[in-house]
Amino acid sequence: MTVLCGQGSQSQIGHGRCELKITVTSIPEEGLKVQFSKDENWFRQVFTEKENLDLPMHHADGSLTLKRIGETLYLEGELRAETETDCSRCLEAARLPINATFKYVLSPAPADLSGEEQELGPEDLDVVYYQDDLIDLDPLIIEQILLQIPLKVLCHDDCKGLCPHCGINLNRNSCQCHEEHGDSRLAILKKLKV
Q1: For labeling, which of 2, 12, 50, 114 is most exposed (least CB within 10 Å)?
Q2: Separation between Cα atoms, residue 156 and residue 78, nearest integer Å
Q3: pTM above 0.85?
Q4: What is the pLDDT of residues 91-114, one digit of tens each?
């Protein structure tokens, strides 16, 4: 069974408007394939004002395949998205395409899983817990988007960055600061005669 979920789509999954919320018991034996298309409004609504994530998301498209064995779900997904952020070297806007494949195992929350902190074992890191026969897949998609963003985003691989003395963007212009200033920590070496 295939379900489409996108902007302007009339399809529903689980409850309410076209959200990626799925009732576990409604997944057929042959599995469920969901295709989704989300825009920047969806991305902004996921985060609260306190989180204030300044990361414009242009779109997020993809597909999810869910297979159920008893109460355990096996999810495989593909994601294509595009975001924009500042280059770490020159501070210019940099578009960042995101392409990812991912897998999750979703299981019902154990009865002893309370609000207290618990130590996770290696086997727990691949499992996502759900409650009340309802799974919200939006946080999993957001998690995958955020995991694909590198710590240092570059506008292009050979970005020269900004001059540390005058601040000029070295991708656009050149300056004479390197010749004038040099590294003051090494000035003593200029006087050294060998």
Answers
A1: 50
A2: 25
A3: no
A4: 998 888 899 999 999 888 777 655
